[in-house]
Amino acid sequence: MKKLTLIISFIILSISLTGCGYEELNNLSIVTAVAFDKNEDNYELSFLIANAPKAQTSAKEGEAKTTVYTGKGKTIAEASKDIEQIVPKQVYLGHINVVIISEDIGKEGFLKISDWLLRNPQTRKKFYLLQAKDEKAKNILKIVSPLESFPSQSIATLIESNSETKSIATSITYSNFISQILEKGYDPILPSINIKGDVKKGSNEKNLETTEPESYLVLGPLAIYKGDKLEGFATEKESWAINVLNGGAKEVNYNIKYQNENISIETSSLKSKIKIKDINNIEITISGKGDIYNINNKIDIENYKEINKIEKAWSKSLKKDLSKVIKKIQNKWQADIFGFGNLIYKNDPKTWKKIEKDWNFKYFPYLNIKIKTNLKIEATGSLVKTIKEEE
Fold this sequence. Notes:
With about 400 residues, this protein is α/β, with parallel strands linked by helices. The protein folds into two domains: about 1-235, no CATH class; about 245-390, GMP Synthetase, Chain A, domain 3, CATH 3.30.300. The chain has 14 helices and 15 strands.
């Protein structure tokens, strides 16, 4: 219950700082996550409430922890009022840390529902935004984890840890996403999230008691947007490549073939630099340092010439993978998620004004993009060599 105590402390501080006066905490329903779905002509708005009187998951002492309330309406505001009519306490939105949107909402256009979040004076606009994939957004709020008290905290922890270590996901806040939509020459991306297993089993308190949960949340590939509309999903490998190109890949484990052997290169310092030659030519330089792992002992990694050959093989393979992803995004989605157009706008506003309306269709798909690399191998760990030295 330590996290709940922190939430309550935050609310007390917020109330005192805003000068709204003290309000009984027992009269508040604290919303920690929100989900947006579409059901035919109606919107479905779902609140994950931290201290509701009845819940889908309860503590062993019988005290409720969370519940999901859903309201329907022709507008989001109407759906919100629908929830307020069934929640026995005053809804408090000041501690939302996760918002999930369904594929239907994404395809219809995020700006249609963003106004409700923007205009609500309680929301802080710094919460994480995620795209539900192959699942209703509200179902994702129901999955409980043995590692976190609240599903919203579980999702936040998942996105933070995965964006740091796997480089497939990336953490995007509401403010980040809106700024990318409104930015000239820039199309946004979102991390996606899905459920592995059965929703009913995952929302049951028994999911907390097993050593191997029957259902759990997983981060999927990046969702590709054009403006505020969802275009589709990249694959996991493509998502990794997109993050490398955007400079958002913090830790990368990359495998290459060398002398018919698999070599694993791990790096935590890949950097991307984009240079605009003109409106038809872009140059991207990827630089970084890596360490070798999982190498066959037949390869002499003490020989600097051998290391140089491995660096060249790494460079060639990485260029090929990144170029393939860029071509797919240019041809299939025509969504400038790399912000090439934005750089043209900043460097040459007059030229951008002439091509802006046709950028995604007439210019972006036909850009000539050259990828350069500056890759160096630093450490050459060898388990076989280490064992032999010990012997």
